[in-house]
Amino acid sequence: MPDELPPGPPPGPRDPGDAWAQGPDGTKAWGLFGAAGLLVDDGAGRVLLQHRVEWSHHGGTWGIPGGARHQHEDAVTGALRESAEEAGVPEDGIDLRHTSVLDLGFWTYTTVVGRAARPFEPVIADRESLALSWVPLAEVDDLPLHPGFGASWPALRAAIDIAPVVVVDAANVVGSVPDGWWQDRAGAADRLLDGVTTLAAAGLPAAELGLEFDRWWPRWTVVLEGAARDASAASTAPVDVVRAAGSGDDAIVEVVTAAVAAGRGPVVVVTADRGLRDRVTALGDGVQVRGPRWLRDRL
Questions:
Q1: Could you give the CA distance from residue 145 to residue 148 in angstroms, rounded to a whole number?
Q2: Most CB atoms within 10 A, among 3, 8, 88, 94?
Q3: How many Cα atoms are found within 13 Å in the side-chain-facing hemisphere of 25?
Q4: 80 versus 129: which is more confidently predicted?
Q5: Residue 221 to residue 248: CA distance in whole angstroms
Q6: C-alpha span between 246 and 243 (Å, rounded)
Q7: Predicted confidence band of residue 15 (pLDDT cuts 50, 70, 90)
């Protein structure tokens, strides 16, 4: 720890959330509005862990950067802010994967799970860390873990490689509602892409994907064909735009084949085309199909 950072909690004004929440039985938990932390892996089999300073709650143990949520702050924003403040994690350098929520009724702790979008080295930026380290997955259990993180780690570890994908048959979805889309197919595709981009940023409830935990952020691929290929929207993570050179169905099958081969899944294909449904579900047990209404209801 740098010499210029003396031991003890940071001085100065604090957010109203930096206080103890108390349950009806007298149980206390830090964070008046709940708390959140970030579990980030580097895509190479390591996770970023924090060795907690002795004066902190469960000091001397290893866990993830995190802390009390600020007033009116959502859990994802809180986790990214805390990890930036404590460990120098770049807030724009994390691809969200899922959230796991511990709910005690009067208080919640949200573990936000992400993957580093680009390499970075953590930096001790405040008084709350003795050390920060990228720890190989196989060595996490060898450390003295914070009790809360230790209890959640087995389930989090088991899901570390789950990578859901949603593939959208744009022609089928756009054509499912007679709203005049045939007069401007490119414009209709752009409107669909705007909605998908908003949905991708918000994530999907885990149950929608048949997964555990609270919420997931899949990778989305929207396949355009014909005149819709003239849509102005470009690929912007986590939404990929594929402009099919020929058959849109063939392009969707190629996207799903590549996802399955890469070990990604579950893969959800949004289409009402029966022939396409049969082709994609034959590619693997992890491939599911939803109709256009499923997507439209969420848009």
A1: 8
A2: 94
A3: 4
A4: 80
A5: 12
A6: 9
A7: confident
Q: What is the mean pLDDT of residues 16-27?
A: 92
Q: What separation, in Å, do the N-terminal and C-terminal C-alpha atoms of the chain show?
A: 47
More confident residue, 4 or 280: 280
- Token output for 140: 């996490």
User: Are 266 and 290 within 8 A, CB to CB?
Assistant: no
Average pLDDT over residues 28-37: 94
Angle between helices 274-281 and 248-261 (to 10 degrees): 20
Q: Is 158 exposed, middle or buried (0-12, 13-18, 19+ CB in 10 A)?
A: exposed
pLDDT tens digits, 250-291? 999 999 999 999 999 999 999 999 999 999 999 999 999 999
* Reduced 3-state DSSP string for the chain: CCCCCCCCCCCCCCCCCCCEEECCCCCEEECECEEEEEEEECCCCEEEEEEECCCCCCCCCEECCEEECCCCCCHHHHHHHHHHHHHCCCCCCEEEEEEEEEECCCCEEEEEEEEECCCCCCCCCCCCEEEEEEEEHHHHHHCCECHHHHHHHHHHHHCCCCECEEEEEHHHHHCCCCCCHHHCHHHHHHHHHHHHHHHHHHCEEHHHHCCCCCEECCEEEEEECHHHHHCCCCCECCEEEEECCCCHHHHHHHHHHHHHHCCCECEEEECCCHHHHHHHHCCCCCEEEECHHHHHHHC
Q: For residue 225, what pLDDT is reported?
A: 97
Nearest to 289 by CA among 263, 265, 268: 268
